[in-house]
Amino acid sequence: xxxxxxxxxxxxxxxxxxxxxxxxxxxxxxxxxxxxxxxxxxxxxxxxxxxxxxxxxxxxxxxxxxxxxxxxxxxxxxxxxxxxxxxxxxxxxxxxxxxxxxxxxxxxxxxxxxxxxxxxxxxxxxxxxxxxxxxxxxxxxxxxxxxxxxxxxxxxxxxxxxxxxxxxxxxxxxxxxxxxxxxxxxxxxxxxxxxxxxxxxxxxxxxxxxxxxxxxxxxxxxxxxxxxxxxxxxxxxxxxxxxxxxxxxxxxxxxxxxxxxxxxxxxxxxxxxxxxxxxxxxxxxxxxxxxxxxxxxxxxxxxxxxxxxxxxxxxxxxxxxxxxxxxxxxxxxxxxxxxxxxxxxxxxxxxxxxxxxxxxxxxxxxxxxxxxxxxxxxxxxxxxxxxxxxxxxxxxxxxxxxxxxxxxxxxxxxxxxxxxxxxxxxxxxxxxxxxxxxxxxxxxxxxxxxxxxxxxxxxxxxxxxxxxxxxxxxxxxxxxxxxxxxxxxxxxxxxxxxxxxxxxxxxxxxxxxxxxxxxxxxxxxxxxxxxxxxxxxxxxxxxxxxxxxxxxxxxxxxxxxxxxxxxxxxxxxxxxxxxxxxxxxxxxxxxxxxxxxxxxxxxxxxxxxxxxxxxxxxxxxxxxxxxxxxxxxxxxxxxxxxxxxxxxxxxxxxxxxxxxxxxxxxxxxxxxxxxxxxxxxxxxx
Amino acid sequence: xxxxxxxxxxxxxxxxxxxxxxxxxxxxxxxxxxxxxxxxxxxxxxxxxxxxxxxxxxxxxxxxxxxxxxxxxxxxxxxxxxxxxxxxxxxxxxxxxxxxxxxxxxxxxxxxxxxxxxxxxxxxxxxxxxxxxxxxxxxxxxxxxxxxxxxxxxxxxxxxxxxxxxxxxxxxxxxxxxxxxxxxxxxxxxxxxxxxxxxxxxxxxxxxxxxxxxxxxxxxxxxxxxxxxxxxxxxxxxxxxxxxxxxxxxxxxxxxxxxxxxxxxxxxxxxxxxxxxxxxxxxxxxxxxxxxxxxxxxxxxxxxxxxxxxxxxxxxxxxxxxxxxxxxxxxxxxxxxxxxxxxxxxxxxxxxxxxxxxxxxxx
Lengths: 685, 363
Hints:
The structure holds two protein chains of two kinds. By secondary structure, chain A is α+β, with helices and mostly antiparallel strands.
């Protein structure tokens, strides 16, 4: 208060030192200084705009790069199972070795020690040494190492070397269906086969953890996106049948010294691929050790000239168009036919054959004559309808559409030569699929390789239902074809395909290999057989083809037909298909595997000692009994047992108490229908 | 009381706003370090609050008496001698952070260079007012002024506090220019200053590195360029609106002295262009009110005292901001009112008290 008054008093006095005359100059200089500072502020503002607006993005990225570390954790890749839930491709945990070069004291010594423990080559060792010198917080030393190597590295106890658990693809059945299943690479990405085609489903989503760190690299927080595991892919493949096919194809290729071979087993009613094998083959666990030609799924990727097996298409088309009758006599022109000034020679001299014999004996001239009646437009339409010249749409990579020229680009020779399977390229799968259309009464089915995709709990995420592409021929035509094709096996070129107890319908083929100079090789050919069994209500269509078999007897009927028979014989037992021949029974015996499952049954077909005691008996009550128990009991009564489904008997035909005699068929319906969802529980076992 | 002349309320308000803002930013910038070093997230905040209290007391104290009493030769000489004594004393105390800037007494630290700054400004204002028309007389006016300025710049620079020494030298030269001292005299002073600066930079490897890092920080991003780069990253990351208060990451030991010398980088990161420009704007407002006070001062002493103190604060602020933005080579000086640091805050507030004091006497 007092002070304030004092100040005011002083203020009233004129200033003690009057402002000097330089005052305006001083004020001006003050203003200049202020202006200078305002300009400085403007520079600062411009610099802020530059840093915070124009270069904001770069700086933000820089900040992120130095303060965030993203750790990606691979999801576990889903397994691939066969139709009964048996694992064909699984993911197993393995250890990967990484290093933090910044915390390794002596990079050279560490590289040397690691190289010794991991048995690296000099080159790998040098690159490891270079990696360890890098100014990084993380480098891979070696991914997915053997447990023994991991132990060796752990024993070294090098500071700055760590381990991460990753998963690695493992194929427990090795070469089994290798080309179909394909393989996944080191980063668990599907590279071929089902692994590739269904990669999106199998892969799952990787987990990412973004860790924020301070300048001392200490984590201060993180955000996490969890992984989702890959889905399970259940194939249509039956491992048991696939195993048979692999073994028999192997044997046939080795015995005939063939360059290559394929075998396809289809379920004609659903189009499902039960087995598909290729030779040469590879072990997908070490896929990189093989030439890429071993990876090739020849049955789907390669087109070949089918030769005489293609006559089933010619015959089916001619019969469906009613241009020929099975018993009509065809002039086979003494083994030759002249087309457009050129002569086609048959493989044998036939004079006149009934049409069914044209097929049974595989007369090229006969087939050509019938095709000429059909005409090129009509024949071309049937070829297209049977699915040739277009991909089948099977969910496998690299499928070939085959080589089919449109009829307007056919030469005069084309119609007759295509009729016996030359001048046309087909895949084994196309051929098997076309044969299926004859086997199932006329429907072309899309080949299926995957039954369903399910999550980890076994719930189906997606189910693949059979797809009818189109009706190709009338049911009556199909029946006639079956009769004709039975003749091929009974007394024609395909006798070696015959089976005891079942009637086989099929066709042999010996397709000459085109040579680079034009024309056909006299020596080299594809020996093929396509057929189905049982002829009535077929359980399977099998196509086998051997590329360039050697030996004196190397025709389709000589090498491919027996291969067909060996595969069919074992596959029918695996599927427990009852024999058609009433004199033969199916004997069901037990394996020591868990009770009540079809796979624990050993099915055998043998000829009953006829005319053994025809025991007239009374049908026992089999309700509620386990499948094996019921089957054994029925077999003891001399009954032909036909099982449907899994589990326990819910229905039986004949009914209990009815009079039965040995050789009668007994149909047992089990309480679990073989619908997709029923396989899940069994996989747990 | 009603008759008491009002001091400049806007000047007081902008000062208080900057200090309050500084408290928030110091708290945001220092929690990580405080937790790690002192087990309390609020360590620096509490200290800064205490210093703000002391500073307020100093402000009110310097506001209370007639500023013209400061003009007396005895007061000026006493302050210069005290500052000299403390600056020499500090040379014999243990080093802190490789420099001898602080006197520590009972847990409190004091930076004599801050006092020296005030003392020199006071001396120059008094000297200029006394010499009036005769400021260009070489031996009686110019020489003593440069002698004092050079002496203190020298003392402060041998404490390894080049930033404060340069700020003082620049402030002093600006004041003398405003007084009308001919430019050729500065040439001599400048030559001496540059020669000694060159000597120091060449002799001290770390300064040479800092200087080359300023010219191209990216050449050695992990080494000498690290501090500048981290500062630019912080500011650049902020963008227009910033990443949000307390959400900055650069303060997590990426930035050097995030809570003191580089607090402006934290402002830029967390509050973006908006916060950074508002801070600059606040200092411009402070400049305007301070120079307005100087213009309205009843005498030359008041004019140069208010002007000199205002300029010393605003120049220091802009030098600090320019360093953070990579426009000037890095030197350790605080951002007045905002940075954590007791001596700077208390003595800056005392200076504001003096300016407010002058504003009470406006014509």
